[in-house]
């Protein structure tokens, strides 16, 4: 009888130890799905600003800016945002018709913003401005269905400046530490970024990118 009791006690102890190990593993590896690494966002913003500084110093001039076919306004000649937004301020709505999603956009990519909706990288231009605007969201919340968006699908951003319609021209995946997504484009471009793979448990090793070009806009009076 003592033999069986000792065996059962050892099995129970083993199960307890294994359960504790699995619990600790889940805390450190599954939780990051809900809490995106803010240091990555800060790195992206700083890198973007550094590249913009270099471009300005070298007086690099980009041409062939997108101009709406419905009017002759060049966005490079328009001051779309006389007042720059504060961190945490809602700056607009992202409409993705193909997945029937309308998502609030907040300036900044800290957890405070990403927990409320889509975050706008502070180091990138605002939607509609003639360069690269970058929006990010959690893969398990606002961008859960991003994988169902395809090339030629529309992304519509409405802000205080007006309504800007972009069309997806490229979809690609990069390493989590690859900052090529933040490159200046010299024309109104919108990129959506989220962690990848979508079903990965733990710190996702890659980023899923949708890149879109501006094809039309209607400015507020």
TrEMBL record:
The chain crosses the membrane at residues 7-28. GO terms for molecular function: hydrolase activity. SUPFAM superfamilies: Sortase. Keywords: Hydrolase, Membrane, Transmembrane, Transmembrane helix. Its EC number is 3.4.22.70. The keyword Nucleotide-binding does not apply. InterPro entries: Sortase, Sortase_D, Sortase_D_1, Sortase_dom-sf. This is Sortase A. It comes from the Bacteria. It is an enzyme of class 3 (hydrolase). CDD domains: Sortase_D_1. Pfam families: Sortase.
């Amino acid at each position: 009888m003592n033999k069986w009791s000792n065996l059962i006690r050892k099995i129970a102890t083993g199960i307890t130890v294994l359960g504790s190990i699995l619990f600790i593993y889940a805390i450190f590896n599954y939780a990051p799905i809900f809490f995106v690494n803010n240091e990555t966002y800060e790195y992206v913003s700083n890198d973007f600003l550094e590249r913009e500084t270099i471009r300005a110093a070298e007086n690099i001039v980009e041409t062939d800016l997108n101009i709406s076919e419905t009017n002759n306004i060049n966005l490079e000649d328009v001051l779309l945002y006389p007042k720059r937004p504060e961190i945490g301020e809602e700056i607009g709505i992202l409409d993705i018709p193909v997945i029937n999603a309308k998502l609030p956009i907040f300036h900044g990519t800290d957890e405070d913003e990403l927990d409320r909706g889509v975050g706008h990288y502070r180091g990138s231009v605002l939607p509609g401005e003639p360069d690269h605007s970058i929006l990010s969201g959690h893969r398990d919340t606002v961008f859960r269905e991003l994988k169902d968006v395809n090339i030629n699908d529309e992304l519509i951003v409405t802000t205080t400046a007006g309504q800007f319609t972009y069309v997806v021209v490229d979809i690609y995946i990069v390493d989590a530490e690859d900052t090529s997504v933040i490159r200046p484009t010299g024309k109104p471009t919108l990129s959506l970024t989220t962690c990848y793979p979508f079903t990965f448990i733990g710190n996702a090793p890659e980023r899923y990118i949708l890149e879109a070009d501006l094809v039309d806009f209607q400015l507020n009076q």
